[in-house]
Amino acid sequence: MQGTMTAKFSEEMLKRIEEILKRYATKRAAVLPVLYLAQKEFGCINDTALAAVSRALKISRADVYGLATFYSMFHEEPLGRNVIFLCDNLACTLLGAESLRDHLEKKLDIRMGETTADGRFTLKNAECLGACGQAPVMLVNDDFYEGLTEARIDEVLEKYK
Amino acid sequence: MSTIKITFDDKMYETEPGLTVIQAADRLGVFIPRFCYLEKLSPLGGCRMCLVTLKGVPKLQTACTTPAKDGMEIITRSEEIHKARKAMLEFQLAQHPLDCFYCDKATECDLQDLTYLFADIEHRYDFPPHKRGTVYENRLIERNLERCVHCERCIRVCGEIQGAHAVNATKRGRVTEMREVPGGGECQYCGHCIDVCPVGANLDRLFTYGGRPFQMEMGDSICPYCGCGCTVSLNMRDEKLVRVRPGVDTGVNKGSLCARGRFGWGFVHDPARLTRPLIRKEGKFVEAGWDETLLYVATRLEKIIKEKGPGVVGGIGSVRSTDEANYLFQRFLRTVIGSNHIDSSARLNYAAALAGWLGTKEDAREATFENVREAHRVLVIGADPLETNPILGLAIKAMQNRGGTLWITDPRVTLTTRLSNRHFPISAGAEVPLILALARAGLKDPSLSEFRDTDLAARTGLSSEDLAELAAFLEEDAAKTVILAGRGVTQAPFGATAISLLLRLAATKGASYLFTLDKNNERGSCEMGVLPDRLPGLAPLSEKARFEKAWGGRIPETPGYSAYEMLQAAREGKLSALYIMGENPLVDFPDTKFVEEALGSLDFLVVQDLFRTRTASMADVVLPAASFAEKSGSFTNLEGRVQRFPSLIPTEEGVRADARILVELSRKMGKGFALKNIASLRAEIDSLVPMNGTRRKLEVMGPPLSLPGAEMHWGPGEDPDYPYVLLLTSSLYRNGSMSNRAVGLKKAQQKACVLLNEGDAAVLKTGEGDKVMLISKYGEIQVGVKLCHEIPGGTLQMPEGFSDANPKSLLPHELDQVSRTPMARFVRVKIRKI
Amino acid sequence: MRIADLIMEKILLNRVHLENSRSIEVYLAHEGYEGLKKALAMTPKEVTEEVKKSNLRGRGGAGFPAAMKWGFAAADPNTPKYLLCNADEGEPGTCKDRQIMEGDPHELIEGMIIAGYAFGAEFGYIYLRAEYPRLVGILETAIAEAGEKGFLGRGILGSDFNFTIRVHRGAGAYICGEETALIESIEGKRGQSRIKPPFPVNVGVFGKPTVVNNVETLSNVSHILRKGGKWFAGIGPEKCPGTRIVSLSGHVERPGYYELPMGVTFREVIYEHGGGIRDGKALKAFIPGGASAPCLTSQHLDVKMDYDSVAAAGSMLGSSALMVMDETTCMVKVAERLTRFFVHESCGKCTPCREGTDWLLKLLQRIEGGQGKEGDLDLLGEICDNISGKTFCPLGEGALGPVRGTLKYFEEEYREHLRLKGCPLKAGIGNS
Ligand SMILES: Cc1cc2nc3c(=O)[nH]c(=O)nc-3n(C[C@H](O)[C@H](O)[C@H](O)COP(=O)(O)O)c2cc1C
Ligand code: SF4
Ligand code: FES
Description:
The complex is a heterotrimer.
Chain A: H1 11-21, H2 31-42, H3 47-57, H4 61-70, E1 82-87, H5 90-94, H6 97-108, E2 121-126, E3 138-140, E4 143-145, H7 150-158
Parallel strand pairs in A: 1-2
Antiparallel strand pairs in A: 1-3, 3-4
Chain B: E1 4-8, E2 11-15, H1 21-28, E3 51-54, E4 61-62, E5 73-75, H2 79-95, H3 110-117, E6 134-135, E7 141-144, H4 153-161, E8 168-170, E9 177-179, H5 192-196, E10 202-204, E11 217-222, E12 231-237, E13 240-246, H6 259-263, E14 278-281, E15 284-287, H7 290-308, E16 313-316, H8 323-337, E17 342-343, H9 350-358, E18 365-366, H10 369-374, E19 377-381, H11 385-388, H12 390-401, E20 405-409, H13 415-419, E21 422-424, H14 431-443, H15 453-460, H16 464-473, E22 481-485, H17 487-490, H18 495-509, E23 512-515, H19 522-527, E24 534-535, E25 539-540, H20 544-551, H21 563-571, E26 577-581, H22 585-588, H23 592-600, E27 604-609, H24 614-617, E28 621-624, E29 633-636, E30 642-645, H25 658-668, H26 678-688, E31 724-729, H27 737-740, H28 743-748, E32 753-757, H29 758-764, E33 771-775, E34 780-788, E35 795-799, E36 826-833
Parallel strand pairs in B: 1-5, 16-17, 16-26, 18-23, 19-20, 19-22, 20-21, 22-23, 26-27, 27-28, 31-35, 32-34
Antiparallel strand pairs in B: 1-2, 3-4, 3-5, 6-7, 7-10, 8-9, 11-12, 12-13, 14-15, 14-28, 24-25, 29-30, 31-36, 32-35, 33-34, 33-36
Chain C: H1 24-29, H2 34-40, H3 44-54, H4 66-75, E1 81-87, H5 96-103, H6 105-119, E2 121-128, H7 133-148, E3 164-169, H8 179-186, E4 210-214, H9 215-227, H10 229-233, E5 243-250, E6 256-261, H11 266-273, E7 283-287, H12 307-312, E8 321-326, H13 331-345, H14 351-368, H15 376-387, H16 394-398, H17 400-420
Parallel strand pairs in C: 1-2, 1-4, 2-3, 5-8
Antiparallel strand pairs in C: 5-6, 7-8
Helix pairs in contact in C: 2-6, 2-9, 3-4, 3-6, 5-6, 6-9, 13-14, 13-17, 14-15, 14-17, 15-17
Bound molecules: flavin mononucleotide, iron/sulfur cluster and FE2/S2 (inorganic) cluster (FES).
Iron/sulfur cluster (SF4) binds at residues 223, 225-226, 228-230, 253, 257-258, 260-261, 389-391 of chain B.
């Protein structure tokens, strides 16, 4: 493949990878944390990211690819600046997650899995976010919003640019 | 406990301990269906077809993951088991397309067979199937994702046996797909995933719609590419090859093949195959009949001999042709012509190893593939078995999988160095000082006292600690240590001496050794006496009486010229005629300009080949020869196994096997060999060389080897005009003119490229894919650039064997004093951007 | 008298309401690391014995006695040994481990150190589910604090015991909560379950003896050491003592999480703690232990909340995620939604789980959508039978819970879907 031999992490990331490697008995064990770094550095797990991870940890690109696609936190396409994970598992659905989904889709004018044209939001559904006692919930980037209503959603979205 | 007792369906059996239930069942002939289990792979337990009942255990258990224990009672047939297995099949068939009509796997498909067996299966799934399509990212292997039964055999075989890790499961659950990384590029084209796939999900793209098994003839042969000598099953339809597969877990390769073996057969039916003898008349080739041509050759040779004596005729035998043809070739030259000027391209490698071996008194143990698989440690010096001898490479991987350790010393970055547990990056050309240092540490030989360890260390580019560790590596566990050496040593100055020291080390410590051999019959051609100073069985010329008696002719007393000496003699007008059987020195020998001049100076050049190679184009007569598939005989592999194979495809009208040509030519020259067929030829060889393949140490001793002087200069040295050192490498996808005519291998890799360090590329302002000119003192070539972060700055690497850019034309041809082998592993070059 | 009244205070969540409850200072001021000090004064064997006396059973779902696991790992001569804290908390409906880690991370850390000491582990990892990103920092801060105070690192509190803890963030896969899949995932592989034997206690992460314990299990350990195994064994039922953090969700007045002694009845949890069904509606069904547990109905309200009693009632306590559904809920839709979860999370390795769950989902969708065919209900049952007992790991078995539970108690509702060619409870689910 063109360019895959030369893809690599930035110096700063390489230093962080060095640190991560110290935490594990094998190089390969560092692959999930390193994939998170790659997603940050390259925006998503694209060919370049796969090649850089493969080079840093000395595992084949196919192995990295198989791994990255197994786990739902890694994306092959770049996401919006803010990622909304709306839980639609049973506890949330019992309390109206489906109509909240409709609301979000309408409000952002995208369907589940899509990114707004301005790149501000990506909307994804989540399988149980572990906040069922406060259902319905969503996770925006690193923060939970619980006990959601349509009004609360509107309020929350305002916080993200 | 040497055996255990287990019961299958109320019948008691005894079997070896340490097996799983399915392994025990297979050994005892008890049927258990399966998709994912395969003896050579680690168990997966995924398909759930092998469910059985263990008495006393409530749930059904998978036979492939359950260890068989003494006293275990296993039920393999019951209502419950039948229902469960049927359910698994129904699940599989829910998604599997019923496209057997045009599936290449039909009638060789486990899913078909099992469905047939469970004929009462229901098909209640009435939803549209998932559409997943077929991916063609791999140029030689089609991956039909819809037919996949998720047995993961392809993934395991690619990772565990091939070590390529090029296929993996992607995504998860229902939508899991077994495929390569987008864009591919990691597959080594061993094609093993095709064979192990129980359905038509991985298919050979060269074979597509090639035929149903009942329309094909199949026969076992020996792969014509490298010294491993793999067993291949040739599949023919209407007398044409349509597919090559490994023999069923037989031969040295035990069910594996490399890209060349599997996809490299295309040359056999290449339209460029020669089909008529050619005679050069007034500068142009004209087709001629066999009789006419052979008579012409005979007359010309006789005339030359009459005028100048037999000493002006030489012959280059073939590391590609059979033992039998090589045997006849040297017999022809020695007794019909009367010349000992006999050699082959084995001079470039194996002949030097032999010179080393012949000069060594100590008898070291030669390893087998099995020894390598079971070794605890392997030390590789100057070789890249993963590229040159891929199946030997698999033996090394198997050794590692069992916990063994691979160490390698190599100035290059290769597949083997990447696989190694430890890579000692020595300086270019430092194999000999390295071996001297190891010998000093391990042999305590006073004749080595003039060398200083610090000097040697400095020359190898390793620290003295590294050298001490390498020396220590050979001290322990020697019975389970194998030393592998290759062209890095044999093509070095004093390479034969170094080989001898290595063999002494191995013998003293109790380790075994093996040489990597790029070409399939390097060993056989030498052992059949295609050497200027050795008769069949490596007998010295002093034993010639025995052969003269058998052959009824006179053999010259003095050794003849080796390959480069013949070329030199030709340039000097001392050699007038050369008969080349199945070799292409103009491409395969270093220093192309020199070779070209030499061949150009000949009065008469005969070339016998499959193709009109560059060498053949210079010939006066070209004789169209048969390929391995069209002739019978034997090849001797790198372990010394003599492996016979039958002729499986009829030859075209105008094509003849090497042996037949030689027999007929000898008749035309009035000294006809009385030979009926290959079998009688083989009998003659066996009577003269009773233990062909196994060498008789003391009887074949050669002259002792001289040591280099302590101030000897190794390596490429310095030259500001040629700032880069180009290291030659081997390629899995090319090793000679057959591979360049194989459509499959061309698909695997189209062109050669030179590997360039990223930093150097930045300085030169070139990038991946750019074309550059590499210029040495001896020649220049144009080649594309590929960037590589692993190789050190100032170093370039480039594979030999590609027809588009041949680095051999950049090389000098300085010969080693002992082995007369040219030094051909590196050269200084400069780079010009185009 | 209600059992809950028998214990005056909570055990696991007795600090979470404090201000700055996460900080080591607050933790130390409230008996923090007392258990560890006591443990280090004992031999590892004695520590294990103490926990054995407490009869602490795993809170991850299977209810395996903790001390027994440690004993197996301790007996294996191979070193180093590893302790993996299962913080994957993936079972839908469950939000208990998060409460501990968010409110009282040192409680978990102290428990891990003691467990490590008990079976001779040198390294601990917390396998944290990806969906708790903020917890990475919280846990790492707490680990650093503990290290500064000499509770972690080399020669802990002057002993010759060394122990480190690292946080390993998962990446979104429910199956990684299964202990062997979790091990694969830490090793940097696709999270798929391993063949057993060998068991993790002998050949676990990086080929070494490994104990996998749930957050809640480990968080009990410091209390057991502090107050004695006997004290713990006296709480709740004899066979399954201690408290349980119930994640209560769905149509109740006061959803949330409640730490209650094992053995309370579901009636008590739903009606007293949870305040009963929302808007005065009637209870239709409840799922007692997360998505894999078959649902129960009002006839089971007096079943006691402990592993054995719930199993006897035909379901399982699992992670004690209690999901409550009122009379407006369509049970086909419930089954469909939960099955969709399992289809999404099936790792794909074994045939029955990969193909079977997907088939179940398609049938459920068709029934719910009004295109159900005669025979579909039988087929659902048969597919369940064909999956059951044949999958590689328990995920496939768990996937049958929703279908089997709803079919068992609400077959009539399924039939009505077929008859009416649609959902009789037009409201379906979640529209109340
Ligand atoms: C599909 C599946 C998912 C699981 N998920 C979790 C989980 O999220 N958290 C957990 O603690 N245990 C989970 N378990 C149970 C673990 O395999 C294991 O039994 C548990 O971590 C052991 O800890 P314990 O003995 O402390 O309960 C799961 C099991 C299965 C089969
Ligand atoms: S390893 Fe050598 S002999 Fe075997 S298939 Fe490849 S080229 Fe042929
Ligand atoms: S052969 Fe045993 S599960 Fe596939």
